[in-house]
Amino acid sequence: MIALIRALVVVLALMPPALAEPPVMPPAAPLVHAAHGMVASEEAVATRVGVDMLRQGGNAVDAAVAVAFALAVTWPEAGNLGGGGFMLVHQAETGDTVAIDYRERAPGAADRDMFLDDDGIPVDARSRSYGLAVGVPGTVAGLALALERYGTISLAETLAPAIRLASDGIAVTPALAQSLAGSRARLARWPASARIFLHPDGEPYVAGETLVQADLAHTLRLIADQGPQAFYTGPVAESIAAAVAGAGGVMTDSDLADYRAQVREPIIGHYRGVTIRSMPPPSSGGVHLVQMLNILEGYPIAALGHNTAPTIHRMAEAMTRAYADRSRYLGDSDFVDVPVARLTDKAYAAELRASIDPKRATPADRVAPEAVPPPAESPDTTHFSVVDRAGNAVSNTTTLNFNYGIGLVAAGTGVLLNNEMDDFAARPGAANAFGLIGGVPNEVAPGKRPLSSMTPTIVFRDNRPFLVTGSPGGSRIITTVLQIILNVIDHDMTVAEATDAVRVHHQWQPDRLYVEPGLDATTIRQLEAMGHVVDIGGFMGSTQSILITDDGGLTGASDVRRPGGLTAGY
Ligand code: DON
Question: Do residues 417 and 469 both lie within one domain?
Fold first, then answer.
């Protein structure tokens, strides 16, 4: 019954706003309590894999790596081996937090103009649908690195549940059935993918059927036996390179052999007495999360009220300034100088705040003079959070970019390939699939990582993790995470209330204030009267959050905007 309601909610979310009236909010996310350890993820079987790992004495990193591999089997639209992501790891014992960057890289033969036609116009299909779209995958290297440095068990032990799920098969959930049906055309384009995810007549698997992924099980076993090099060299790497070449790409097996995950310093911010640690470049997430919080800290947000017009106006103005800066300054900091210190500086935030008229929306062309078309698609990513009984915490966001990436499985491997190259700016001023404009710092270059919005975040109180959160949602990830933090810190909500609350989003261009269904009509009229162009659209994000209470207990919530998530603990 709940599945039915959720399915209905998602169907409504996908409909144009006129048909979706009257607005229907999903059922409320349950607030889950636990004493020792907790996992929040978008897929219930993967969550249980993580909780079992914690219960057996594994630490948060052991559990996180097992969850990530399980998601590659049970939630293939976004869980992956052929994509990339970011993992924030906090170690209770040392008090250190590190940011593991396993973002995809551009192949060695990539070049700045690879997505342009002869007239210099971006060709979307090249960066989104064929071999040139595929970045060198980072997931296997990143998970292996996380486990080696911060875990306590072997790679084979973390892989065992995923291998079992892939070889025995999984019961297709309503959420997976819906996901496969939604991406059927993308999967049907490639025979190697259709053979796995669709029946011989082209119909996708439906709920209750068993989906076996024998090739993926084989690849996972090779990694368990030989380590990550079984993915980056030898037959798996050769098959990936051949699949990419067959789809018109330029990735070679030496690009795969050369891939390295990086350990980076997190972005640090301070907001009303808590400390934020989040993802640095090549994600824009941490920088702009902290920048927006710095701007908003100068306003009495709690007194202005949750989701009132004065609060949303200030949030939207902070958002538009942050996203304008994103387009100008952000890129892979291994290749370009990103002015992180200035962008996250309280004094700079004060300058930006001074440019905000409390009564009028600033038109986007006055924030910066460029114009771009609206975003086209709503592709996918997945986030999970883990806390163990020692107080270690992991916040991990991973993606193939679009659902199932380009939809192509490298033959014999079961590995779906990403289309992360679309997150580069095809040329300065061009928008990606999320309508995000990139600048020169985010131009394509060999070996470079495309700019991301993924924002795995841990909030600290008195130097101890207090809130672990993150979300999918493309360009909306950063503003979604912002709102979880504001809802908990300023509006004193439980993590479930913070998850359920109606979300808003502004990304500078297009000059629109997106709001979810459910915001009251008077507030919308007040925002319009201030000059905002309000767009009531679909639901935003799918947060997976854990909050550590003062007495050390755990509460958590999986977003109900997308079906199938589960927060559980022990
Ligand atoms: O890294 C990024 O920002 C994007 N590739 C993420 C894509 C995404 O979140 C789609 N999710 N719904």
Answer: no
513-515 and 534-536: which strand pairing?
parallel
339 and 198 together in one domain: no
Ligand 1 nearest atom to the CA of residue 473, by list position? 12
Catalytic residue among 362, 381, 413, 567: 381
Q: How far apart are CA 390 and CA 36, in angstroms?
A: 8
pLDDT digits (tens, 9 = 90+) for 185-211: 999 999 999 999 999 999 999 999 999
- Distance from residue 472's CA to the centre of ligand 1 (Å): 6
What whole-number distance in Å separates Cα of residue 135 and Cα of residue 112?
14
| Residue with CA closest to ligand 1 atom 11 | 380
Helix (H, G, I), strand (E, B) or coil at 365: helix
The rounded Å distance from CA 285 to ligand 1 centre is 11
* pTM score: 0.94
Regarding whether 231 and 100 lie in a shared domain, the answer is yes
Residue 515, classed as helix, strand or coil, is strand
d(CA 346, CA 91): 27
Nearest to 28 by CA among 50, 45, 9, 15: 9
Q: Is residue 397 part of a domain?
A: no
